Amino acid sequence: MNLFTQMEQEDYEQVVVCQDKESGLKAIIAIHDTTLGPALGGTRMWTYSSEEAAFEDALRLARGMTYKNAAAGLNLGGGKTVIIGDPKKDKNEAMFRAFGRFIQGLNGRYITAEDVGTTVSDMDLVYSETDYVTGVSPAFGSSGNPSPVTAYGVYVGIKAAAKKAYGTDSLAGKKIAVQGIGNVAYSMCQYLHEEGAELIVTDINKESVERAVQEFGATAVGINEIYDVECDIYSPCALGATINDDTISRLKANVIAGAANNQLLENRHGDLLQEKGIVYAPDYVINSGGVINVADELLGYNRDRAMKKVETIYDSIERIFEISERDNIPTYVAANRLAEERIETMRKSRRQFLQNGMNILSRGR
Ligand SMILES: NC(=O)C1=CN([C@@H]2O[C@H](COP(=O)(O)OP(=O)(O)OC[C@H]3O[C@@H](n4cnc5c(N)ncnc54)[C@H](O)[C@@H]3O)[C@@H](O)[C@H]2O)C=CC1
Ligand SMILES: O=C(O)CCC(=O)C(=O)O
Q1: Where are the catalytic residues (predicted)?
Q2: What is the pTM of this model?
Q3: Three-state DSSP class for 30?
């Protein structure tokens, strides 16, 4: 991997490599773009197959956060950390405290939170060493686990997508196929069930499926069967890349809207959805409730304010559909355009501000 070439091609600002021999910490903090503000993005802990794979993931995820934060209307840039290790075996207190000191050293250029493999209690340890962490325990005046809030955002996003496809945002009687009943999807299914949707679910974890069957009257199907079921909406809430050549030809839904990150295997699969007239709610817009929630901590956390902001995901998704229709472009391109335009506008206005500052400074000299 040629790191500097990749950084230059995709405009990464900074990559920080952190190691602490005593605790076993091996972390990569990637900061993609801070035009809109400090880079905010979670910390993923994962057993990467190679160091190169870890770098790739950190870079890809950091860039994704630039787009997610910009499209969500947050005054935040994009960054992310990966910690190399097994979240079930390799965690220890010293590791997260050492990580916290590395973050503190960046002096606010990067703010972290949870991601796959890290928890609220890990963030509490990070918090003991740095101010620049969100998603810590409510006991510290913080917002805690972001998943239920992410779930609410996905729920309102599904409603906006249903309105586009079916002319009404009511989900009563709609058949919704949910892939993965984890933290986000469980809370999401509560909302869907309350509204009268019919749920079809799958998960590799049998207990999670059983709970959904019992609590929501869901119908359970096999891991691979979920792509073939008759349904109105397919909601991917487990893995990325589940929208690909194989699944697009099998899916029966007119709407794809779910929590998972990086749902399209390749961009061309977003083009294919557009050609087939399938309404696709771009992943990083519909799942931005978690980051909207943790970002509210930077203002002094207020749950009502955070939830009101999360509700605007409905409008953002509608706006993206409008741009997609107006410019005849796939919805994922419309979302990218929205994010890029906001960053570019702010970049220009900041340049303007600096220019004015220079004029003032040079006055009288
Ligand atoms: N937790 C949050 O606030 C946010 C989560 N996301 C994304 O949403 C997705 C779900 O996140 P969480 O609910 O937090 O994760 P989770 O780990 O709690 O849930 C994922 C579920 O998917 C299941 N699963 C894994 N492989 C599967 C397969 N092949 N088929 C069916 N089920 C499978 C797992 O058993 C688990 O129950 C992830 O892609 C995550 O990156 C995005 C933004 C914020
Ligand atoms: O939701 C979070 O906890 C942090 C934000 C983030 O990393 C994400 O949305 O993927």
Answers
A1: 80
A2: 0.93
A3: strand
